[in-house]
Amino acid sequence: xxxxxxxxxxxxxxxxxxALSPDQIGNCIAxxxxxxxxxxxxxxxxIGIKDDRGSIRNKGCAKAPDLxxxxxxxxxxxxxxxxxxxxxxxxxxxxxxxxxVALSKIVNELFLNKVVPIIIxxxxxxxxxxxxGYQEFGxxxxxxxxxxxxxxxENEDVINGDNxxxxxxxxxxxxxxxxxxxxxxxxxxxxxxxxxxxxxxxxMYRLGKLREDIHKIEPLMxxxxxxxxxxxxxxxxxxxxNGNASPNGLTGEDAxxxxxxxxxxxxxxxxxxxxxxxxxxxxxxxxxxxSQMVWYFMEGFANRKKxxxxxxxxxxxxxxxxxxxxxxxxxxxxxxxxxxxxxxxPAGHKSKRxxxxxxxxxxxxxxxxxxxxxxxxxxxxxxxxxx
Length: 387
Hints:
Elements: E1 6-7, H1 11-14, E2 30-31, E3 44-50, H2 64-72, E4 84-91, H3 96-112, E5 116-120, H4 127-132, E6 141-146, H5 164-169, E7 176-184, H6 191-199, E8 203-206, H7 207-212, H8 218-222, E9 226-230, H9 252-264, E10 270-274, H10 285-302, E11 316-323, E12 328-335, E13 340-346, E14 357-362, H11 364-371, H12 377-386
Parallel strand pairs: 2-4, 3-4, 3-5, 5-10, 6-7, 6-9, 7-8, 9-10
Antiparallel strand pairs: 1-4, 11-12, 12-13, 13-14
Helix pairs in contact: 2-10, 9-10
């Protein structure tokens, strides 16, 4: 099925195999040159997107995939046991919606084979196709989007990079449990939109809040299934190759840290990196940063721990906080080796098993907040959605 949609790569234009050492990525992965590589046993699959029709003010991002590859292939494989395949490029369909549908089918096929797709290039509305791959997943999912703008506009018939979120959030059938908007800038966001998303108990992390401590998003990444990253979230000085670049934004280091946290997440099953525009770039600075973000995602993936709190496991300590004022008993779990925290939230009356506990990642600060008789915000939001 994959060969119906994906075009091969001209490897000779990307790198010289003889010039690379055996442990550089270009010589360590299976690449679609004439036939689509076998995905059996693969951990990660790279997919390039050659469609930027949905991009607003940033035409040219369809040319990003091969340039990102050119720099990525020069890097060293993060772990010798990491098996990566490059499936080639998804060319644009007759209409943008055809591209979305094709990507959804590819992503779903990879899910069925337990392969994590890394999607590079194209406009940000391609995220809608990435999301569509989860429709047959059989469960509710959590989505995180990193973007300086909140891409919601109502009453527009044609999906594009400025409005696709309204289609994602209102998609039927609904399989979205939580949405997180990361690194948005207040001056680019409608107060009404922010208020609406907040009332839906979604997670909103403005740029300033995120930059105070980038590590605070680690538990959020542990609870995310799909990540979509618009390169415009990175400031112009670090990523000039984008028509929507702003003087303010994440640093390149921030972006790589976020990508690594996404890779580390046992739950995360797809990563998309969009709106990289080589035509506006300065000495390949943005495509180089994009390739480094992909590398850090891979490095994080190679270090996944598959940690699940459970009773009678010496690696976990269970903490019970009796909240007298709220008449609640909050249960926290800590992995003693890695200092990672979770907390339990009652499943609520909507669940077929109302007595079941919903386990969500959290921080030590959430535990300390509970010790002060304060219900942590992430507990409250999850409880509201479950109830």
